[in-house]
Structure formats: structure tokens, C-alpha cells
Design goal:
Largest sheet of chain B: 7 strands, mixed
Largest sheet of chain A: 6 strands, mixed
Oligomer: heterodimer
Distance between the termini of chain B: 36 Å
Number of helices of chain B: 0
Mean pLDDT of chain A: 92
Low-confidence stretches of chain A: none
Distance between the termini of chain A: 37 Å
Helix content of chain A: under 10%
Order of helices and strands of chain A: EEEEEEEEEEE
Radius of gyration of chain A: 13 Å
Strand content of chain B: over 45%
Helix content of chain B: under 10%
Number of strands of chain B: 11
Order of helices and strands of chain B: EEEEEEEEEEE
Mean pLDDT of chain B: 93
Shape of chain B: globular
Chain lengths: 110, 115
């Protein structure tokens, strides 16, 4: 079983749609959580951190459920520019261990 | 502020050749790391360093060496290239303090093909 699992997609949605991505992690010792965005053939870039209380950044909302070891990302009012791969990332304290999910591909169409 | 700089952007090697991928950061980050990314897979950690003079193996270290003589530089050496090392390589850095809360800053990547 992979340590971080994501639905690979692709998700094909029209502009203006709301889309949700899910991610599960297997190690209960995981301490911090992020969503990264990766455009085709480019480096990953931090989209947002994920906090237990849930957090929002404009059209993006991230949620963490530690009991279920589950992370989500909600994108509202999708834009063409949101087309990318979204990576779920989990860090563990007590040493350098950053685990990446394989990513979920999103296509937003006009 | 350049961030994380990787060179070269593209490289083609023949099986058995050796080369060094360069990585430099100007953010005074203590932690640096190398990842490879293959289609359908997440980024996998090759080697990492928590400070100058200190390196350790990640998930997929075989066939690669690293050194960290300065805080700024973290080169990755391929000792004898194999087709299985065809991949996209990313260098990253982040802060040591509360490092597990510190997001990674990535370089632009090196696309390596081994024939």
C-alpha cells in the first residue's frame, strides 16, 4: 500500500464547476500536510498548507481529518488556469521524510 | 533572489557514462534534497542533507552519490548511468526549524535521458 494515495483522475470539468480531490495517508505519525500544484513539465509549487481546523485561500479550501487520515482539496468556480496536477504531500517529524502522492490531474474546459 | 537553481535543464547520456547534476540555493536553507519523478508516480526521494557535511539516503539512493560541502550547493552524481535512471530530477530546499512544517522550494528540474 502506498503511503500517500490519490485518485489519479483525470478530472474533466467545465469552467465554473466545483471539484474536490481526496488523499489518504497511512502513517498516523504524519505531522504536516500540504497541497502542491504542478504544471506540465514544471516544478511543483506550494498551493497551500493544510491545517486540522481547515483553511481557505480564495477559491481553494483544504481540510484534514486526522482520525480518518484523510486530506481534501476543494476548488470552487474552476478557471481554465486551474488545469494542472495536484499533489498531496505529507511530512513526518523526527527526521526528513516528505512523501508525495502520485498526483491528481485536472482539466478545466471552456 | 534566484531561489533554487538547477543545471543542466536537459541531458542525454549513454549507458555507463557519469555526470553531475548541479543544485544551488541562495535562501540559506539548511535542508536540501533530490527527487526523481517518473510517469504515474509521485516524487521519490533520492538523497537529502540536513546541513553542510551531512547527507543521508532517501527512498531510491542506488546509483547516485551526493555531497554537501557548503550550505548553498548539493550536487547529485550519477556514477554509471542506466536506462532506468531516465527521469526528471528535482532539487529542493527548505528550512531546518520545524522542518516538517516548512514547505519545499523546488528547482526547475533536469530532464535526463539515458540511451
Amino acid at each position: 500500500r502506498k503511503e500517500v494515495e490519490q485518485d489519479p483522475g483525470p478530472f474533466n470539468v467545465p469552467e465554473g464547476a466545483t471539484v474536490a480531490f481526496n488523499c489518504t495517508y497511512s502513517n498516523s505519525a504524519s505531522q504536516s500536510f500540504f497541497w502542491y500544484r504542478q504544471d506540465c513539465r514544471k516544478e511543483p509549487k506550494l498551493l497551500m498548507s493544510v491545517y486540522s481546523s481547515g483553511n481557505e485561500d480564495g477559491r481553494f479550501t483544504a481540510q484534514l481529518n486526522r482520525a480518518s487520515q484523510y486530506i481534501s482539496l476543494l476548488i470552487r468556480d474552476s478557471k481554465l488556469s486551474d488545469s494542472a496536477t495536484y499533489l498531496c504531500v505529507v511530512n513526518q517529524a523526527g527526521g526528513f521524510k516528505t512523501i508525495f502522492g502520485a498526483g491528481t490531474r485536472l482539466f478545466v474546459k471552456a | 533572489n534566484a531561489g533554487v537553481t538547477q543545471t543542466p535543464k536537459f541531458q542525454v547520456l549513454k549507458t555507463g557514462q557519469s555526470m553531475t547534476l548541479q543544485c544551488a540555493q541562495d535562501m540559506n536553507h539548511e535542508y536540501m534534497s533530490w527527487y526523481r519523478q517518473d510517469p504515474g508516480m509521485g516524487l521519490r526521494l533520492i538523497h537529502y542533507s540536513v546541513g553542510a557535511g551531512i547527507t543521508d539516503q532517501g527512498e531510491v539512493p542506488n546509483g547516485y552519490n551526493v555531497s554537501r560541502s557548503t550550505t548553498e550547493d548539493f550536487p547529485l552524481r550519477l556514477l554509471s548511468a542506466a536506462p532506468s535512471q531516465t527521469s526528471v530530477y528535482f532539487c529542493a530546499s527548505n528550512r531546518r526549524q520545524s522542518s516538517y512544517n516548512s514547505p519545499l522550494h523546488f528547482g526547475n528540474g533536469t530532464r535526463l535521458t539515458v540511451t
